[in-house]
Each structure stands twice: as C-alpha cells, then as structure tokens.
C-alpha cells in the first residue's frame, strides 16, 4: 500500500434513472478508467466498448448499480452525465457538409466542428412510453420490455434476419390472449423466436416501430456551412454519435 493511497477523494453526485425515477450516487471516472474506455473504443469489436461502458457505470456507482438491469436509454443518459462530470460539460464533434454543389453534383464535404453542451442532452420523461402493449390481432397481444444497452447494440450490429428476430424476441416480456398469459421468462429464447417468426410482416413492423420509437439521447445543431453557405441541421443520436 502506498502512502498516497486515499489522498485524493473524488466528489459524488446524484443521477435519477429515467426509467424508474430511482436516484443513485456516483463519482466521476478516474484517469485509469478513462484510459481503459479509450482502449476499448479503439478496438475492432464494438462489444468491447459496450462492456467497458457497463464496467465504468458499475465502478462509478460503487457497485450499487447493475448495468444489465438498466434500459438502454438509462445507460446513455448516465454516460452523458458521467462524461460531463468527469471530463467537461462540453464535447466537440465533427461532421461533413452534405450539401450538393450544383457545379459538380458532389457534396461540399467541408468538415464542420461544433460544440455540444452535454447538460442539454437528456432523455425527457414524456418521451418514455408508458404503454408497453402491442395488439397483434383481436385475440393476441404482447407486452414489450425496455431493451438493455447490450440488446439495442446487438440489434444495430445484427447482420441477418435471423439475428434481428432473436434480438426482437428478447425484448418481449409476455404474450397473452383472453385465456392465458405466457411469460417469456418461462420459455426458451428459441420458443419466443419461433413465435416471432409466425408474425406477419405487418405485425412484425409494429414491434420494430415500437423499438425505433424508444427514447435515446439526441441533440440537433443548426448552422451555416462557412464554405458553401448552406443552412443545415444535424442530429447527433446515441453514444456513438457523440463520442465517435
């Protein structure tokens, strides 16, 4: 043990979990933790970054919060606040101007840099759905559940229809008719995925529309390109947009 151990004490803050309203105490992340996060971010496998974010949240809440118990938008909101308290309340992001130049029919492509105040990036309570039920037909309905950070990431990374079906199936909490309720916790993942495959394209689209409508961190910036002078807006959405 070093004589310097315990010399520096990090401040603590309070985060209100959007999906539950529960308040949890947290500290900023440390230099060594930020280094681990950056290494994971530079990995070829996006899953390494997902695991690093989860580990960071667990550590910064003193082991009191299980990241796997949080909804995807809980983790996004938490990570934004954590980044603001640990590094700074602003983040600089860049994107390319996509305005088409008439002379050569190519995009302007000028690199635009903007600063986003992280305190303005939040998931609003009114954006969180209260009704999780989806009616498939006159007799069958399903109750969805909020996807975890892993689940939503896997949906983004899914490369085949079979993968998408499995991920969507994992977001179903129960399947019910007037006579019986089937809890998916009492079924195998394969059984639930097989059920999803019996849906019509229109029914499956209802599930996808629900998922696409779930809240996420986002922020829209409006500006004028200094080169082509076009006025435009760009929306940054999700952790990867803010910290790519």
Radius of gyration: 21 Å
Q: How many runs of DSSP E, i.e. beta strands?
A: 12
What string gives the helices and strands in order?
A: EEHHHEEEEEEHHEEHHEEH
Oligomer: single chain
- How many domain units? 3
**Beta-strand proportion:** 15-25%
Q: What's the story with the biggest beta sheet?
A: 4 strands, antiparallel
The whole-number mean of residue pLDDT values reads 89
Overall morphology: globular
Number of helices: 8
Distance between the termini: 38 Å
**Low-pLDDT segments, ≥5 res:** none
- Overall structural class, as computed from helix and strand content, comes to alpha+beta
Measured as a percent range, the helix fraction is 25-40%
